[in-house]
Structures are given as C-alpha cells and as structure tokens.
Predict the structure.
Amino acid sequence: MGESWERPYDTVTSNVFGTLNLLQSVIDNDVKIFKFDTAGTSEEYGNVHKEMMEYHDFHEGGGLILHERSPVNPKSIYATSKLASDFLTMNYYDAYGLPGVTTRMFNNYGPRQNPRYITGTIITQALSRDAIEVGIIETKRDFCYVEDGVVGHIHVALWGNPGEVYVYGQGKNISIADWMKLILDVGRRGGYWGDKEIKVSEKRFRPGSSDVKELLVGYQKLHNLTGWEPKMTWEEGIKRTIEWYAENRREWIGRVDW
C-alpha cells in the first residue's frame, strides 16, 4: 500500500510477475492442482468514482458496502498490481481451465504481521516511544484478525468455484483514529504502556489523492456458500497482537518504519 510507492518495481515484480510465473509453471509442467487461490486485497476497490456511483451498494447509514460485484478503482501501485494478479488468475482459468479463485480479504492484522502496517506501527511505537506518529486518521477500515482470514482462505480453496471472486472481512469498519484509540486502551489496561502523545505527520500521508477513504465488506457470498464468518472480536484480536509484539521484539525491531 503506502510502501509500494517507495518500492514500485519490487511491488509489481512480486505481485504481477510472481503470480504469472506460478500460473505459467502450472501449465508448462502440467501440474494437477485442486485449487489456485490468488490473494488479492480490499485496496483494489479504492474510492468510489462519481460516474460509477449507481453501481455501488450503501447501507442505511449511507456507508459503502463492498462485495464481489462492486466496481474496482485501485489507487496505489500495490492495489493495481494485486488487481492484475486477480485478472491473470482468471485469464488462466478461461484459457486453460486452471482452477483459480481470487480472494479479497479486508485489512488483516495479528501476530507476526509486518510492523509497517497500521496496527503494527501503532503497537510497536506504543511499546517503544512516548509519542506515536501516524498519517491520515479519518479513513475507515474493516479489520479482520489473521486466524479468521486464514480460515477464510481455506474455505475458498476447498469450496470456492473456479473462476470466481470471494471477499470477506470483519463486516464492520472503524476510523483509524478510533482503531488507534482502541489499541491504546487495550494496551493500557494490559499494563503494556501508559498515556501516549499522538502526532499526525504529513510524511506518513500517501501521495496526492491516493489514500482510500472507506472500506467495508459484505461477505454474504462466502458465508452462504461455506458458513464462514469472523469469530474474533476486535478487542481480543488486538490483545493477542499486542502480546506477540511485546514478547517478540527481536522479530520486528529491525523492520519498523519509525
């Protein structure tokens, strides 16, 4: 996402050419596979383009609901590269019958995640510094705990129909400001830190108008097919995530972005 602007060639090489190499290798070597699951991202949806407004769904409160039929509008190199990977997977299904599915999991978080992602950077800064630097905090995200996400991938791999897209996440969203408040509250109650100063830093903003304003998933398709739904509450998921970062400093200290 934000990091893709710093490493655009690495991002495209990994996501686009990496996926293409895997797909073509399956065909070239006549590998018989049960399912090929390409992991996309909720970032592929980007922001609502005014000309596409009528094709989007909104809940009673006016918020956007994103599902498999929602128009895509990637706003970062990362999101564009993921969308390309999705389409390549569908190309190989159409051309060769390769049993590919694509999944768009909404904002995952949890133990072992790269500390440059928003949840990790908030927690690692809170564990190490008096002040926490963040970027834009008004945007809203749908956070899904990693264990729920893995189970979602397994459900799609086992029961998903080749050639189709499946999206899933927590099914509710929260502003980055309130997510940060929740993280700090959980950590404070757990004795990991005290009060922290919050600093909004422009150097942590995404370039231009490339930030995505709002993400919220409607995961009914996957639920109706497999019964999948998230099990982890945000508070418990955050608690487990803080515990891991607190107990495994050597695993992440060299990878932070602060």
